[in-house]
Design goal:
By secondary structure, the protein is α+β, with helices and mostly antiparallel strands. The protein has helices spanning 134-146, 153-168, 182-193, 201-208, 212-223, 227-245, 250-256, 262-273, 277-285; strands spanning 5-6, 17-18, 28-35, 40-42, 50-55, 60-63, 68-71, 75-79, 86-88, 95-102, 121-125. Strand 6 (60-63) and strand 7 (68-71) form a beta hairpin. 27% of the residues are buried.
């Protein structure tokens, strides 16, 4: 790849089709298609809403006519309203992609704080666009819903779009989650699913595929605490949720989050939350 921005001024392309139709997506217009090789599309006025394009295969160029972004598999671009949507496909092959035109909800703005290689264009590079990649799965679900016949198809499509944008957060270099070592990410997901497990440094290191010293160094570097201290924090945070939203006895909650001794659990919980488990529950239900 020769960089995200390519000058196409001197390229010989077929006669462009100019699209001047007004489009008003309600709430999403989407496509799961491919532009053919050597295709040219011009919409210099852009759209009234944002446009999201995920490249599945091949290469496409999108942006202002004289300075376009080169998009390869895994590139996800978000174009701001009324910015040019001129598109070109090389003669070497088609450009398969998933795209959508959508009015961003206010809550989404923090989720799309992606790098801006050009004014009006945000670009995120995903590590995979295989059929089981979470962002691709969510965008395909979005397209399936909005082109379907369900009564709530628009709401389902927006929900799938939200899921796609949330999955993007793990790959946004501007977010903390993207800077998390992927081996620790896998481990933390496993711990979160199995808080009741008697975790040791050895079995944590096995899940992460690391030696115990390397695991400990990574935890201290990224979380500034030891692995066992972080696990206890996750357990106590989960206990807070269960005390507030379930009617389970305190001893059962202690067992579910990995404390065999309910008295030790109460001691650690008091240090964590400032109240005993029973007082915490009464306070939250008052």
């Amino acid at each position: 790849m020769d960089g995200p921005i390519s000058n196409l001024e001197d390229r010989i392309m077929p006669q462009a089709s100019h699209d001047v139709r007004p489009l008003h997506p309600d709430p999403i217009i989407s496509g799961h298609d491919q532009m053919p090789a050597a295709a040219v599309y011009r919409r210099p006025q852009g759209l009234k809403d944002h446009v999201l394009v995920l490249t599945i295969e091949g290469v496409g160029y999108l942006g202002p006519q004289r300075k376009k972004l080169k998009l390869e598999p895994g590139d996800l671009v978000l174009v701001d309203p009324e910015y040019p949507l001129d598109q070109d496909v090389p003669m070497s092959g088609p450009w398969p992609r998933i795209w959508a035109s959508v009015a961003l909800r206010p809550a989404w703005n923090d989720w799309v704080n992606w790098p801006r290689p050009l004014p009006g264009y945000r670009l995120l590079r995903l590590p995979s666009v295989q059929p089981d990649a979470p962002v691709r799965v969510a965008l395909e679900a979005m397209h399936h819903h909005i082109t379907g016949a369900q009564r709530c198809r628009g709401e389902l499509a927006l929900n799938a779009m939200e899921a796609a944008l949330l999955h993007c957060d793990a790959h946004n270099p501007r977010t903390e989650s993207a800077r998390l070592d992927p081996r620790l990410s896998v481990l933390l997901e496993e711990i979160g699913r199995r808080l009741e497990t008697r975790w040791t440094l050895d079995n944590m290191a096995g899940v992460a595929g690391l030696s115990v010293p390397h695991l400990t160094r990574l935890f201290r570097r990224q979380f500034h605490v030891s692995p066992m201290k972080l696990i206890e924090r996750l357990r106590l945070q989960r206990a807070e949720q269960l005390l507030q939203w379930s009617a389970e006895p305190v001893a059962e909650i202690a067992r579910q989050v990995g404390f065999d001794d309910p008295f030790y659990f109460s001691t650690r919980f008091r240090l964590h939350a400032g109240h005993s488990p029973r007082d915490y529950r009464r306070h939250k239900h008052a």
